[in-house]
Amino acid sequence: MKNIRNFCIIAHIDHGKSTLADRLLQETETVGERQRQAQVLDDMDLERERGITIKSHAIQMDYTGKDGEKYVLNLIDTPGHVDFSYEVSRSIAACEGALLIVDSTQGIQAQTISNLYLAIENDLEIIPVLNKIDLPNSNPEEVKDQIVDLIGCDRDEILAASGKTGEGVPDILEAIVDRVPCPVGDPKAPLQALVFDSEFNSFRGIITYIRIMNGEIKKGDLVKFLNTEKDYYADEIGVLRLEREPRKVLKTGDVGYIISGIKTSTEVKVGDTITHKENPCIEGIDGFEEVKPMVFAGVYPIDSEDYEDLRASMEKLKLNDASLTFEPESSLALGFGFRCGFLGLLHMEIIQERLDREFGMNVITTVPNVSYIAHTKKGDVFEMHNPSDMPDPNSLDFIEEPYIKAQIITKSEFVGSLMTLCLSKRGMMTNQQYLTSDRVELTYEMPLGEIVFDFYDKLKSISKGYASFDYFQIGFKAAKLVKLDILLNGEGVDALSTLIHFDNAQSFGRRMCEKLKELIPRQQFDIAIQGAIGAKIISRETVKAVRKDVTAKCYGGDITRKRKLLEKQKKGKKKMKQVGNVEVPQKAFLAVLKLD
Ligand code: GTP
């Protein structure tokens, strides 16, 4: 136990965690030359393509220190985007130390701070590392000042490295061994293992990732999951090298996996404690946050016959991503589907793409919204995850919406335009602080509903990428919200309804209709697009009819070309949904995100 070090890497997005993690694997010869492939840990296709980490991963390395001792290092890689902070908090709970990576060209950013706080709350030893020092525009001295200010360490405790060239990487390994405490825990106590992740594997069933806090587990043991109160045999246990490596026993302080023949995802809860059936531990490991979805949207199969398949796919996905929540719902326009809860918009996009790639599910996602609290005149109070849950305005007393505290760190030249943006999103500034002469931290209170749409993109474009943003929820406040409905040829499309602040409803309705006009293709008849609040129509656009024979262009008889065109048209249709007599493309359901 004294030679084990469990640590994670935390950083703002793109500050170079994955690159550095790869370097550590290389330096410790965990990855052979042949297996070398950039970003070994980002093994999901989607992660490689987007160059971001979505899931946390764990991997074990062997390292011989300068003191000649052999150490086992367990690295848990964590994602940096604000939407995935839940993954970060789970990983952190399984570690004793954290490398805090700061890009020396960018300095401290919003998620550097929020992830750091998470690590400090969990009493992790922090090792600050200045990264990307190979870059000519790197600014090590100034960024060191920022780090000293932030965590109150000595300047010489800050390491400098480059994930690209490998410079400074050996020092990081030494620092991990020297500074990160070894795990504590009682090897003789009853087994207590923390479930920090799980994954569905089509051959093996569910693989549960664990960190042993106390006691030990042997292959074949009968174990109990405290939270679900179910028993299983530990058919296989082992450690996580590049592949899973079976072992006979896992001891206090170890990080590894257990395969126990669990087939259904609902039986494993991340954050749960595993113990022995006989001689169990008295209580579970606490300090684990329940996931709070922030954004809700309907997810519907394009083909309604796929509903059951979609349910099965979502159950599997949930196992791998505990932050996803879903419950059945039905829509007049879209049929049967699910109302899903996401951590944010990027999370929603990722889930949609994973459904498509990993499960071949073609889905339509509806306009995202946050959860509201409705108070009726009779005194009933209930939560709404869907605009269609909105009670009749006559019986409604008032609505409350969730508020967040937002922290924005930016260069001072962008402060003015960022303030204008926040104001347009109903933000109230509560603090403005200069971190250095040209870096400012702005603190705002804002409705969460305003930032789920396009706030992040706008923030980035206004600041040319030089603003970072983080937020946490601070409770609910009453607001004057109305439900805006969209009608297509006089028929309400529930999946397009949104709750919107009264003052913005007019312009929002108008822009929504304009956008839909762009997105809904012309069909054989006129399509009237109307925005309405209650019975009152507030905006209208028309998509003119067209009578176009797609094959008309191919005068003459090239039949293969004709067939190709028809195929192409058929494919295009797949992402369409029939609403009444109108065909509506998927894009249109998300029109609200693209409003100017
Ligand atoms: P997420 O996984 O999305 O949170 O990002 P990350 O922090 O893991 O960053 P990643 O390792 O993917 O690196 C982001 C970008 O910076 C990539 O284009 C890397 O090639 C580049 N990069 C990382 N480390 C260095 C470095 O030390 N020097 C230079 N020049 N570039 C680096």
TrEMBL record:
GO cellular component: plasma membrane
Predominant place of localization: membrane
EC number: 3.6.5.n1
Cell compartments where the protein resides: Cell membrane
Enzyme class: hydrolase
Superkingdom in the source lineage: Bacteria
Catalytically driven reaction(s): GTP + H2O = GDP + phosphate + H(+)
Gene Ontology annotations of biological process type: positive regulation of translation
Membrane topology (UniProt): Peripheral membrane protein
Binding site for GTP: D14, H15, G16, K17, S18, T19, N131, K132, I133, D134
UniProt keyword terms in alphabetical order: Cell membrane, GTP-binding, Hydrolase, Membrane, Nucleotide-binding, Protein biosynthesis
An MF annotation (GO) of this entry: ribosome binding
Tr-type G domain sequence ranges: 2-188
Family affiliation: Belongs to the GTP-binding elongation factor family. LepA subfamily. Belongs to the TRAFAC class translation factor GTPase superfamily. Classic translation factor GTPase family. LepA subfamily.
Known role: Required for accurate and efficient protein synthesis under certain stress conditions. May act as a fidelity factor of the translation reaction, by catalyzing a one-codon backward translocation of tRNAs on improperly translocated ribosomes. Back-translocation proceeds from a post-translocation (POST) complex to a pre-translocation (PRE) complex, thus giving elongation factor G a second chance to translocate the tRNAs correctly. Binds to ribosomes in a GTP-dependent manner.
NCBIfam families given in the database record: lepA, small_GTP
Protein name: Elongation factor 4
Organism: Ancylomarina subtilis
